[in-house]
Amino acid sequence: MTGPTSKKTPSSLPVEDRKRVVIERVQPEIDSGRFPIKRVVGEQVLVEADVYADGHGALTAVLLFGEGENPSRWKSCEMTPLPNDRWQGSFTVSKPGYHAYTIEAWVNPFKSWRRDLDKKLQAGQDISVDLLVGAELVEHAASGAAEKDRKQIEEFAHFLKSRNKLEVRASLALDPDLAELIYRYPNKRFATRYDRQLLVWADRERARFTAWYEMFPRSCGENGKHGTFRDCERRIPDIAEMGFDVLYLPPIHPIGLTNRKGRNNAPMVQNGDCGSPWAIGSEAGGHKSIHPELGTLEDFQRLCGKASEHGLEIALDIAFQCSSDHPYAREHPEWFRRLPDGTIQFAENPPKKYEDIYPFEFESEEWPSLWRELKSVFDYWIEQGVRIFRVDNPHTKPFAFWEWTISEIRKAHPDVIFLSEAFTRPKVMNRLAKIGFTQSYTYFAWRNTKAELTEYFTELTQTEAKEYFRPNAWPNTPDILTEFLQTGGRPAFILRLILAATLSSNYGIYGPPFELCVSQPREVGSEEYLDSEKYEIRQWDLKHPNSLREIITLLNRIRRENPALQSNDGLRFHPVDNDQVICYSKSSPDRSNLIVVAANLNPHHAHSGWIHLPLAELGIPPDQSFQAHDLLSDARYIWHGPDNYVQLNPHVIPAHVFRIRR
Amino acid sequence: MTGPTSKKTPSSLPVEDRKRVVIERVQPEIDSGRFPIKRVVGEQVLVEADVYADGHGALTAVLLFGEGENPSRWKSCEMTPLPNDRWQGSFTVSKPGYHAYTIEAWVNPFKSWRRDLDKKLQAGQDISVDLLVGAELVEHAASGAAEKDRKQIEEFAHFLKSRNKLEVRASLALDPDLAELIYRYPNKRFATRYDRQLLVWADRERARFTAWYEMFPRSCGENGKHGTFRDCERRIPDIAEMGFDVLYLPPIHPIGLTNRKGRNNAPMVQNGDCGSPWAIGSEAGGHKSIHPELGTLEDFQRLCGKASEHGLEIALDIAFQCSSDHPYAREHPEWFRRLPDGTIQFAENPPKKYEDIYPFEFESEEWPSLWRELKSVFDYWIEQGVRIFRVDNPHTKPFAFWEWTISEIRKAHPDVIFLSEAFTRPKVMNRLAKIGFTQSYTYFAWRNTKAELTEYFTELTQTEAKEYFRPNAWPNTPDILTEFLQTGGRPAFILRLILAATLSSNYGIYGPPFELCVSQPREVGSEEYLDSEKYEIRQWDLKHPNSLREIITLLNRIRRENPALQSNDGLRFHPVDNDQVICYSKSSPDRSNLIVVAANLNPHHAHSGWIHLPLAELGIPPDQSFQAHDLLSDARYIWHGPDNYVQLNPHVIPAHVFRIRR
User: What distance separates the 2 farthest-apart alpha carbons in chain B?
Assistant: First the structure.
């Protein structure tokens, strides 16, 4: 607390105490400005704040914004008052990277003066002195005005003081154009600047809207042979035709031999077992090398090129852990934890043991060299052209490491996308998103009931989380074959696909087994696949008539054609009088595109219900009919009013995806 | 963002990056710690925070607290984990003034080790190496241990490494007393300290629990004569008997003559009109002087003494504005605003004019001398023994001025209580409470319906506001005779009294007119009293049979006898199946005292309804009968179950105030 002291002269006192405007409760603002919010290029940032002062003076508030963490030049936009001392303004992020914003506000005596003059005129009070007061304010503006405006402002002041009739002078005093001119030269001596400079991180568009397809390259061969990058190339047109835009490959590095796991995670390897790609490192190299059986770096680059031709981007899996055969284990034992018996600590989560993997010891005294080396793994693959990384288990490495790594990488490459593969406690998942991960895996796979889905996606899209956490919804992964998919048959797969693709603008599938509705777990109660591709080569019959290829293709086309499905801000849930039926809508940011989804959550039985749409909120005139065009069946319904009936047989198709035509 | 750079050696890197624990969302915390929370001496501060780290390591979190803004010595209490990474701890504020608190947390390897050892034992795994790992951790604790513990800890480590049977060693490893011993010497090298030091301001108890009585001293005379402090003395026993503990006097300073207002706020004064006490200052002096007709400083001190004998404290009204006759206007024209015509600007809120008052010009260049002089007004009356001030219109003076003034005064006098008389926009009222005002006037007078009362008091008592805003509820003031009181007759007065006295632990009445149910406004649509005491002497017949003296006395006794009514934290509203009947309960902090109020909000007609009490939440065994003792009528009811019937005739009494006896 500063303040006047008897020894100071007025002129040496801090100006801080003379600032009368308070600016607080700025939104969006994450953890008092500790973290940036996220946008993609071209999106708007809508900023609100409480702005007020003592007394009755009129205020002016402006939103300041600029490029970079510390803009050298600020642009400004005047904010609009809302009820209850809340103010609002907005700006658009124009390019990738950081943008900064803050707020400035001041008591505006000329604005107060005009307001009060108007009231006094209406009450028929004498305003002769008021006009002189106004002239003083105008003269002050003149003293700070640009050359081109000064003359006009001086004439204005002169006229206010003139001997013209009071009414004539008053009417000029209230002229809105002249007011605008005066507002251009405010007295900001005691203006309050919000004490935090807030940041936006702007990504390229793919941060917000992607469809991922995961596959194991080694399974792309034929006749049981180990697949290669060349084999993968043959699959590219097919995956692109289905409408995916990211092709994600599990780790492509050499696989360790020591303690290699056998099929179905057997502790003992059989001859010829190929091991888990996540047990990284062998004599052939580590995180910057390619498993020899997949091909060469040149082959990998060819694959990337081919993918790119088809609009697909390759995402690599970065898993920071080592087989004991990894060169790091030999060259940098200081990066691992040595036990009292002289061995290196393998990974464990008692009572579970992962004998084929050494975790890095981030508490090592040699942590700076460890951090630099791990960051250089990203650098290496970025050099090869990769711009999307799916990061394995980031929650078991320090937050500070990720924050440093991601921010360092982005200095040169703001276009890199990081997907956080953390399935852990909610606050840890949120923190990873705050410190820089572009997208995040979610609990979607385990949210099955209407209440669960509604609560979870409301939290993700309508709380502060929406500012930094971009969900990427996966119905399955190589580690996750949910009970729902195990028991619900083909309708369950279709349902979870539709939910993932329409609830979340980013979604993905672990492709081949999903397309083929593979549902057999290793054992009852397990979410592991039987004969999991994690431990063996599986060659899939993707032409099988049971394939979901057609509906997948259709859904991806619907997503591309409907901007409403390309972001999550416009998601709203709507009541249905049947707990087995869920209904939600998505609007595009400009509200021109509106999708309504109604889905039967029960994969076994038909269900029907009345869905209730808040027409006014959705921009549908309540007294007019509107068309609900089911983009899955191509049927068109004419609806009238908020309540409409749906009936869904999961054995035909478990959902409607309506485009509403107003 | 810090982090390793290639030029730094590991040892010179900031330790910051090695801290793995995150501490965030600390509550209570007002505006990122910018303002203190409030408590009274003896109250608890319950602190919660999100505390978590990467990985699976067990954590320890402690709440640190101490006296003063920057404690020289911290005490600590270990926090308890709640679900979802939330932790909780508490401490008690022991004396008036500032107290600080913050949180420290660290990854606790010994705790993790014990947890994992237990799991491994249960899974029947080999633990021989684990015991050696544990011994290392114990040895580390020994190295930091106090002399008295070191030997025992070293023996523990030695035993873990010994050749004794694994089971014997393991069972000692899991011994809880030994664990406590090790926890006493944690490795806090990478401990995270929350980056803010948060403050509590602790007041004396009267900050939380007061009953105020407002009266005009000049009306205490007899036979139409101007009352004096001596006359006031005669009223003291009566006011004390009614159970009040604060006697609040409108300004006692000399009243200006120039532009003095006449009766009923007439612009022209009649001979003998005594003017408004808020038009402060005349030739007889200003804010540090006493209106000559009231008596001398000695008389004032006698009055204070007499009040004190009866357990009453005098509260003075500090209104920072001047009559044009105030010595300041002559001696310090620089503290006022001079208009272009050479006159001083009087107060106005266009089109309203207050010609008898000059506001201070806080934008004066001479603000430091103005601030110091105004603060010295408080200092002067504090020297005379006054410790409670009701501050007039604080919202028309800068926030920074109040924050400085109050904090400066409190350095020497932490027992001073400031009541903020601001009836303005909600955020401004909240800000005044945050910057230091002890209690605040509220919108209570205008909250009449069940929905209004429920919403408003829920906001005041169950949101963050409860940490800094202490409501003081007034059914009337000399400026506020509500429409409800104007039209509701005696039942309306009784109802509003009961609501004020039971909803808010601080409440007050503008005494004589309230006791006598005076309800005549100056004109229809106005909240001003007819023949308001603000402008004339009114001598009241307080012995009139219509007086509310008896019920006032009873209510104040009930408040004193029931701790539940002495704070607001325990306020909860309960459903009633009639919109005209409101029901709420208050529990004492230790939950031993429980009051349930049921009131008919309609002053004209009888109403009845079923009230529903959440028995479990209120600590009432759901399967047992309990007694509801109406402290107003002394009737006792035996109730059973959550739903009970009440019938309330406002012409008898509009409310029950039940003490529940479990």
Answer: 107
Residue from B392, B467, B533, B536 carrying the catalytic annotation: B392
The answer to whether B304 touches B252, Cβ cutoff 8 Å, is: no
Q: Is the separation of the CB atoms in A654 and A648 below 8 Å?
A: yes
Of B132, B340, B365, nearest to A341 by CB-CB distance is B132
Nearest-by-CA chain B residue for A393: B55
DSSP A288: T
Residues near B146 by beta carbon (within 8 Å), at least 6 away in sequence: none
For B175, the token pair is: 């011994």
Place of tokens 């200006």: B256
CA of residue A486 relative to chain centroid, distance: 30
Q: Is B189 helix (H, G, I), strand (E, B) or coil?
A: coil
Sheet holding B571-574, edge to edge: B571-574, B581-587, B594-600, B655-661, B625-630, B636-640
Whole-complex ipTM: 0.94
Smallest Cα–Cα separation from A189: which of A26, A20, A57? A20
Residues A493-528: pLDDT tens digits?
Answer: 999 999 999 999 999 999 999 999 999 999 999 999
Contact status, residue A132 vs residue A162, Cβ threshold 8 Å? no
**What's the pLDDT at A10?**
39
Compute chain B's Rg from CA coordinates.
Answer: 31
> What number of C-beta contacts closer than 8 Å exist between A and B?
172
Q: Is the pTM of this model over 0.90?
A: yes
**Torsions phi, psi for A581 (to 5 deg):** -115, 130
Residue A649 CA to residue A294 CA, distance in Å, equals 44
Residues of chain B found within 8 Å of residue A350, distances taken between Cβ atoms: 116, 119-120, 123, 125
For residues B333 and B322, what is the distance between their CA atoms, to the nearest angstrom?
12
Compute the nearest-CA separation of B437 from chain A (Å). 15
Cis peptide before B14 (omega within 30 of 0): no
Model confidence pLDDT, tens digit, residues A136-164: 999 999 999 999 999 999 999 999 999 99
Please state the three-class secondary structure of B471-519 as a single string.
EEECCCECCECCHHHHHHHHHHHHHHHHHHHHHCCEEEEEHHHHHCCCC
Report the 10 Å Cβ neighbour count for B566. Answer: 21
Per-residue pLDDT reduced to its tens digit, B433-455: 999 999 999 999 999 999 999 99
Nearest chain A residue to B370 by CA: give it.
Answer: A4
Q: Are B18 and A399 in contact (CB under 8 A)?
A: no
Hey, is A247 helix, strand or coil?
Answer: strand
Residues paired with A657 in a beta bridge = A597
CA distance B90 to B68: 17
Query: Which residue is closest to B424 within chain A, CA to CA?
Result: A55
Around Cβ B124, how many Cβ atoms within 10 Å? 8
The one-letter amino acid code at A300 reads: F
What does DSSP assign to residue B59? Answer: E
Residues of chain A neighbouring B84 (CB-CB closer than 8 A): 425-427
> In Å, how far are A189, B247, B315 from A78, measured between CA atoms?
18, 49, 45
Residue B421 bears catalytic tag: yes
Instruction: Give residue B510's pLDDT band: very low, low, confident or very high (50, 70, 90).
Output: very high
Whether the bond between B351 and the residue before it is cis, its omega within 30 degrees of 0, is: yes
d(CA A439, CA A429): 11
* Unique residue bearing structure tokens 């397990």: A526
What b/e sequence results for A523-534 when a residue is b if at least 16 CB atoms lie within 10 Å of its CB, and e otherwise?
Answer: eeeebbbeebbb
Q: How confident is the model at residue A247 (pLDDT cuts 50, 70, 90)?
A: very high
Please report how the helices A367-383 and A399-412 are oriented relative to each other, as an axis angle in degrees rounded to 10: 40
Distance CA A565, CA A385 (A): 29
Q: What are phi and psi of A375, to 5 degrees?
A: -60, -35
Closest Cα to residue A243, out of A587, A524, A507, A536?
A507
Q: What is the pLDDT of residue B15?
A: 64
